[in-house]
Amino acid sequence: MTLLVVTFVIGVIIGPVSIPIREVFSYLVGRKAAIAGSGHTQHLIISQIRLPRVLLGLLVGCALAISGGAMQGLFRNPLASPYVLGIASGASTGASLVIFLNLHGVVFLPLGAFIGGSLAVGIVYQLARQRDRKTSVYTLILAGVAVGALFSAITSFLIFLSAGTDRMTDVIFWTMGGLGRASWTYLCVLAPIVALGSLLLIGFSRDLNALAMGEEGAFHLGINPEKSKRIMLGVATFLTSSAVGFAGTIGFVGLIIPHIMRLIMGPDHRFLLPATAVAGAIFLVWADMVARTVVRPVELPVGIITAFLGAPFFLYLLKTRKVRM
Amino acid sequence: MNITIEGLHFSYDGEPVLEEIGLSIEKGEIFAIVGPNGSGKTTLLKNISGVLTPDRGAVYLGMKRIVDLSTWEIARQLAMVEQDREVGFDFTVREVIAMGRIPHQSRFARENKVDKKRIEEAMRVCSVSSLANRLLTEISGGERQRVFLAMALAQEPKVLLLDEPTTHLDINYQLQIMEIVRTQAIDGLTVVMALHDLNLAAQYADRAAMLDKGHLLQIGKPDEVLTEANIKRVFHTDVIVTKHPLTNSFYVMPLPYRFDRSKSRSSEQESV
Fold it and tell me: Which of A78, A225, A292, A324 qualifies as a FRET site for B14, CA 20 to 30 Å off?
């Protein structure tokens, strides 16, 4: 929790334009100083750029990580993530299509992403169900990879179609992911979604623990496995899609943060999921800080940083810790 | 709690697996379901547990039809130790056993005193207390099975279903499991288990039912069911059923294929 606050403050401080720490604190503590004129530009940077960006990072990181954690538990498979099941690809295709059709706006983007994400996961889930009557994890993941590839192809096709126009850069931005478009309106939409979705998933952590005993094992513990899975999958899809809708596809957070937290905290989802949510939020803000400062003034796509930071750390943990998968 | 099964039929994809099964099991009884592989033992257990729904007929838990009970209500009365259960992620022994308390906890509840007591009691009964903090992946097969049994007992069930609880276990572990089960049954737990080991059924079951290709061949005391004729008919194997010299219970001994029973008296002289 302390780390969360520290990250938040540092995230606001660090950026291409340096702002004295004193100014940041004076802004965060009270707005009185803001009226005093001298630091006006700095305050404007804080209020309109830095602060929304850091907050968006926290929300998106939290959403991606907790969805990933829930899905890994849901499918009893450490490989499961919003990406493996095709949700992110579907959401990104949905968002791209919205941009391609020139339907800008806070409502259309997440809506498009959600429709795309739900469509992808719907196809995957139905396919897996019909084949085995009960949803099998392997079919689910295989189908997810295939459907993800299909949607990625559609997105690439949209990029190709819009070559040379402004829209192309927009679409490419979505496929790379980034927090650069943060605004207070975005935050107002995303914040309640993330808060509600995360709480719901945490509320289902007992079901996730039971599902670790297998579907029949969960049944014997009084959990209706199909119902629990459907609800959690729906919530996780909604969270991921919303995050993708506002920040594009940022990889690795949903896969690696739950893993790292499981190595540290153990597999009990009642503790794992809240920890994952906080860690995901912190991680993404740090990754974004690196992304926007490492080759100033150019901004790197944050997905590159998440992979760069996350993968080696994960490998290190795998090698040194007694693995608790 | 007693279990009643009436006119139960079940099929997988139109292929009948169980036909016209009817039996009743009394409170505190150890009831063994025996029969060869594929005779429907596990399917019958899953019909009793509510995992599968019969095509026709019904299973009653006490006075209520199991299909009328919610998953939650079933779990508060009935626990099951499945065959070859695989656990996702590395839980510790205690974490696994504590999951047995889920049916008795509300969604956000922490472990209370009663939960703790039941968990510790179950660990003691199954002699796994010393393993509490070990990972499930680090312990032996025999220990694992006792952990799952402890988890089921922590659930405070009135009915315990066991699907081949002794498969892959060494002989000492087989007896450990059976002894724990017997003690619980004396305290009033109703136990139904699918067993392929006829001798364990003979030693520990109060009554047994023999299944033959989805049909109930016979129900009764083990010595009535596990006869040479029944075993020959269902398993297509020649056996000798004799009294055990020490325990006075009977045991089943298979005879090799080449053994010719009619010549058994004179075989020693005639052998090459």
Answer: A225
